[in-house]
Fold KDP operon transcriptional regulatory protein KdpE.
Amino acid sequence: MQPEPTTEHPARLVVIDDEPQIRRLLRMALEGHGYQTVEAASGQEGVLAVAQSRPEAVVLDLLLPDTSGVEVIRRVREWSEVPILVLSALGQEKEKVSALDAGADDYLTKPFGLEELLARIRVMLRRALRPAESPNFSSGLLEIDLSARRVWVNKKELHLTATEYALLRLFARHAGKVLTHRQILQEVWGPKSVEQTHYLRVYIGRLREKLERDPARPLLLLTEPGVGYRLALLDPE
């Protein structure tokens, strides 16, 4: 497990939510685990807070009084790649997908558990700190040499088809981040295939057969129901 931020170098998080009790809960939880927090009660305040405080991550509610959380993401993404964790109310599946397509990194559905929130933040920060130029990727028993296009699981080399490798490479480049069906289909199969979700079901099944110890209970390649998939960042075994 990735250690929490130290008191010498605490990570700064911007929390954007119009509910004072939620902001208070998040502030207490985050500061109790060594993070600094900056609060904003509206979208406009949130964009300004991100610009001024230069945080390591953002926690953003989708329902804001002055603008949508999706619009906040779009505005921030015009100039920043800061990790963004979205908080969404129950029944907002379309909004979750819109937020992820706009550039959010992950989401949690309200009500949420604080331990899961902290775990998701750790993963986002871990992903953000990975050297972008490194051709080597690992998660649990999975190892990839992107420069040589070679893949191993538990030190055994795998043989993947071109499409399987393209999928896995995409997940590795965005490990820890939820990718929507549309994002994956457009990247791997092209813009004319963004509605062909059956392609994904078939190839995700094939990848799990090769990557997972138990494909029926995947630990590495995870499904986000109704939204997409995510490659988990696991500690080495």
